TrEMBL record:
Keywords: Membrane, Transmembrane, Transmembrane helix. The chain crosses the membrane at residues 12-31, 68-89. The keyword Membrane applies. This is Alkaline shock response membrane anchor protein AmaP.
């Protein structure tokens, strides 16, 4: 899992927990569940009855007559809106390179789709000794693609030997595309297997 996915999942989890907690708090007070179920809420707990509000009227109007209050509120909301819009656009942005130039220098009219190269790289890697399954993915820009190879190894495979063989696979991929560089990240895991009993 890359850092972008971890950040997205963390933000979504935090936002979900905040919304869930706030919704339960509002629902409990609005339905008057504390009184119905004979529960005693903590001291200074908000929204304990249907007539309560999250922020009391005195707190809501405390600074409204100050000259700095409304510009500050509007600026804070604008910043939050800009951050939310930036995050949304970051999710919609295509992180795959799409069509890749072939050759060095690139040949006019000759392009290779990133999924085709990823499939070929995965198929070539899956044939390596000690590899159970392989998946490949290309990210980045079309002029600077990056490869991620996800390998599931056999139980008796030696990771050093697999990585050494992977180097030759990547060398063939660079030769076939005419690229000098193809930065690659390899993620290794071992396939599930039954434990061996020593005799």
């Amino acid at each position: 899992m890359n850092s972008h996915s971890v950040l997205n999942r963390t933000l979504l989890a935090v936002a979900g927990l905040v919304l869930l907690g706030g919704g339960l708090l509002v629902l409990t007070g609005a339905l008057d569940l504390y009184r119905r179920w004979n529960l005693e809420p903590p001291a200074d707990w908000p929204l304990t009855s249907p007539h309560d509000t999250i922020v009391p009227a005195q707190d809501r109007t405390r600074w409204t007559d100050e000259g700095w209050w409304w510009p500050t509120v509007i600026a804070a909301l604008a910043i939050l809106m800009a951050l939310a819009l930036w995050w949304l656009l970051a999710q919609l942005r295509n992180r795959h390179p799409g069509r890749l130039p072939v050759g060095n220098p690139p040949c006019d009219g000759v392009e290779l789709h990133d999924s085709a190269l990823a499939d070929a790289l995965a198929a070539d890697t899956a044939r390596l000794p000690g590899v159970h399954t392989a998946h490949a993915n290309l990210t980045g820009q079309a002029d600077h693609p990056h490869a991620t190879v996800d390998l599931t190894l056999e139980a008796d495979a030696r990771p050093r030997d697999v990585l050494h063989a992977l180097e030759s696979t990547l060398h063939r991929a660079r030769q076939s595309t005419g690229w000098e560089h193809l930065p690659t990240r390899a993620m290794l895991r071992v396939s599930p297997h039954r434990p061996h009993r020593a005799e």
